[in-house]
Amino acid sequence: MDRVTRAESASVQVAPIVVARRSSEILRWLIFIAVMLGGWEIGARLYGSPFLLPAPSSIFAELGKAPGVFWSNFWVTTQEIVVGFVLGSGIALLAATALLGVPAWFEDFVFKAVSTLNSIPFVALASLVVVWIGVNGIGSKVAIAGLYAFFALVYHSHQSMKGTERMKEELLISYGANFGQRLWLLKFPASLPVVMVSLKGAAMAAVNGAIVGELFGAFQGLGFMILDSRYVGNTSRVFLAALGCAVVGWVLLALLGALEARVVRWHFESTRQR
Questions:
Q1: Would 98 be classed as within a structural domain?
Q2: How confident is the model at residue 154 (pLDDT cuts 50, 70, 90)?
Q3: Whose CA is closest to 211, among 200, 223, 221?
């Protein structure tokens, strides 16, 4: 009973701290957005060329003119980003895990192939994917976003799993732990801080990938909106689409930050204290 009481007491004491930290994080984001938009508004007015640098007020006015156009394109791009990120990250984590159990020569061969593909400009890969899969629908854009996320995650995830302390692994082996148990008890937990940081990079890469795909071939989405607005000289709408991309990125980062705070709480709290 004592242990239960102590655990309940500890959870009651920790809860207000967690709430305070989340409130502080939200406040920091609000301050950042206010400062960014305020500085942008002042700078744009001082610059005095709305065509080259529209103020946030004129960008939001553009949203008010045709909200349906923006939100329909925003929804298409959000689907491409989320699906591409989930698929690309999932495949990257599966590949990073599977490569732990293969011979060294095969692992070296795979990462030479990954490095080679990663060295090719993604713009070239994106154009090929659009040709292979097609312009219609979101398939090609999902594939490009997935490729961006995959390359941002696979190498670092694999190296973080592979780089666990040999002494700890040998200790588990001495207790009779098989490969799967060593993965679950040692390699996965030890690699989580690096994996979570890499997932954030993969999320941002997926945003870029979806937009690049839309710029190469699409009839809807924020990338298409950027291209179409540029042709007609509507700079405010170009900036509006770019802000839409930033919002998707912010939301993904916030969700991954919340996930990190839950699954790697000790690491998350130590980084926050610096």
A1: yes
A2: very high
A3: 223
